[in-house]
Design a protein that fits this description.
The protein is α/β, with parallel strands linked by helices and 750 residues long. The chain has 18 helices and 34 strands.
Amino acid sequence: MNIREFFPLYEVARDPARCVKCKLCVRECANEVHAFNEKLGVLTADDSKCVNCQRCVAVCPTRALKIVRTDNTYKVNANWTGDAMREVYQQAQTGGVLLASMGNPQPGPIYWDKLLLNASQVTNPPIDPLREPMETRVFLGKKPGSILRGPDGKLIPNQTPQLALRKPILFSAMSYGSISYNAHAALARAAQELGIYYNTGEGGLHEDFYAYGDNTIVQVASGRFGVHTDYLNTGAAIEIKMGQGAKPGIGGHLPGIKVGPDISKTRMIPEGTDAISPAPHHDIYSIEDLRQLVFSLKEATGYRKPIIVKVAAVHNVAAIASGIARSGADIIAIDGWRGGTGAAPARIRDNVGIPIELALAAVDTRLREEGIRDEVSLIVGGSIRSSADLVKAIALGADAVYIGTAALLAMGCHLCRSCQQGKCNWGIATQRPDLVARLDPDEAARRLINLVTAWDHELQEIMGGMGINAVEALRGNRLMLRGLGPKPNCACSVSSTRVSKGGRTMHKTIEMQAAGMDYKALNDSLRAQGASEITVRGVMGQRYLGCALQDKNLTLYGTPGNGLGQYLSGGKIEVFGSAQEATGDTMNAGEIVVHGRCGDAAGYGMRGGRILIRDDVGYRAGIHMKAYENHEPVLVIGADAGSFLGEYLAGGLILVLGIGLDGKYPAGFFCGTGMHGGKIILRCDRKPEGLPEQVCVHACTEADRAEMRPHVEAYCEKFGGNPEALLGAQYFVLTPNPEKGYHRMYTSVI
């Protein structure tokens, strides 16, 4: 029996008293929601196809239609919401990755709304922008450190190429393919009229738009779609796309349904094929490699164009930006967690990255501290919703902002978040000729011009109220910002349970909120607490949590940064979320439990204690693990591990359970390279092949299973599962090859 597990999210409400059966809704709906039953003479609606784009509502001449969210609900569950259940049902039915579009719609902190703006009163009189000159022009690019003059006193030009904007706003990258020809035309015409720039995205540039080259930023991404010398030389600037806020760590997605003849020609790919760009640029693995691409683009364009490097906002974006500033790039573009997209895996869109507000503050601070802020300009994007967000971004350190979703809304987008289907009823995110024709590029351009003009007026009014008459004086002026709510980096809201002992009141348990805290302030606060049990919520990228911990138990909610539990010497750290690189680095004792995955180098050099990881790990897990005296380190990995697992292993146990892999080999390449002690146990159905010569392998014995048992039982106790079933599976054991170890490799200098 085929059971419909979820009710349609939206319902079409038709008022029969108003409906005149003109059938306009049938003709206008690209999703084929509406239909006319000729036999019965009635209009019907297939609610399951409705994406709530509101097209039928807008065109209905008698206002007979409304789209309403269904009131059919599942039993209330604060953890398992109706949306979460629907997604599970959908994946169970299809086996597919959830693909989504536009920005992250999930509730979460919007830090723009936690900031208020200052204004001048009395002592520093405000400026009337209607009667006094206000300067909102900006120039993007490197700023020379000094003015040079020749012997005759005349200025010596030492300015690198700049982008001159009449207003500190640009239209962000939206590729031809993800949006329509008419949408691109509107962006290009509006940018030219406004004296600003629009970004082609990674889809190349249609030859019709070469005429707008002076107001165009061309993009070079990992797929190199549409990239050639004419394209590079046409643009006013070149942007290297390293990452995107909606999908950090992965490449672009353009479904084949959107790749028609024009897209095929512009992108230089066959018609109808999915355009999937790689996650990395395969010629960039370091800042030095990035520098090479930067200067190759400068060479190709005669050093006439500024080079932008665009990255997604991630936890270490400040360090990344520091490297980019030294790579020769002229401008850094940072795209935040809520940035839009034409198509992205929903889980990545909603759960990876950090808000642009946090990233911008961190980057501007880092570059100033290092004395290199003038080496680059900063453009930020990722949900700039109004002129107020624009002002706050500039005050936090931005030179200008990218707007994408706001620009689409100005053209008529209704945020139905179904761009990936290619059926946009408003003619924006589609390549169907009949739908594209619905967007008048001239009207859309006029609306874009109106929007940016209005924001510019509001920018001038707000600056005038501050007593500031130029964007340059606002940039990085954090005195103009005030936090709404708890003071940032304060002792974080702490709640505690007190117990009395010997006439003294002591803290037994403490709960802390880490959102927005600097890692050093958070660690100092943790060390200062007298409690033995500490729960920390809102963890996002803070490094070294639990470093050198001895006698406390930490419970962390969120994603701790690098070096979690580094040098741990006792106690316990439990993470409800994933952890980044170097978890348990050089730990000596205690336990780390991660209810998620870990990045690279988990258990690096650990020499005691135990790490339990529910899911997978990155490269070089267990590298340089070692045992001494009665300390035997144990690393348990629930799913699989990346390459170089147990590299240079000198002691201890690495156990990979291979859960969910159906008996497949659960490690990457070069497992056990250079191992000269310890043991690696892998769950797989076949004896591993292609192992390094330093490794011997044998089928798991009863003695091996007895050694595994306490750790398998501990894993199942924490994460669920049947320990007996896991212990009964096929395992292979890797041990050092005494004949091929690294010995007698060195000799003394005579």
